[in-house]
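Moderator note: this is an archived Q&A kept for reference. The question asked for a predicted structure of one protein chain; the sequence and the answer are reproduced below.
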Amino acid sequence: MKRSQSIVLTVVAAGLSASRAQTTSVLTVYLSGPSAQKQVIQPHARVPVTLPPGVYKLAGELADKSVLPFFAVRNYSGGETEQFHIVPR
């Protein structure tokens, strides 16, 4: 049986608010696909996430509810970086 390959996705919590002050809110990222994960990421942190390659539903939300949540579908094959830019409502 062939062992499945894994990829590393780096998730970055970075961005500016409307006042151009750096965000201080914690980012929660949800990944659902061939593997499911939830990552809680501190402000300005870079977190490597190891996943099997494939198509994932990706959602992100800040603890600060004045910022809209994010949702997308992505096909990850390896080496990608997902960067969240913080935009207030």
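Archived answer notes: The first strand starts at residue 7 and ends at 13.
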